[in-house]
Design goal:
The chain is an alpha+beta fold. The chain contains three helices and two strands; from the N terminus they run αααββ.
Length: 73
Amino acid sequence: MKSTVQLNKLESALIQLVAKGGGNWSWYEIGQALSRRDVPRETDMMVALKKLAVDGLLKRYVEPGNPRAIAGK
């Protein structure tokens, strides 16, 4: 049996933004794009991104020499 993950509006918007950025946007770029959307912020963006990575919906990585984490699809 397949397990399903229920996404809230923030998580759904984050997945859309990661796809829009081609999986190459940093957390900063995602945050900038998110600020232009009318999305409830019931959870901190970074907490939501980390949860999505734990759930296997995003990959999170840090480029060597770059303190900004990148969210990829």
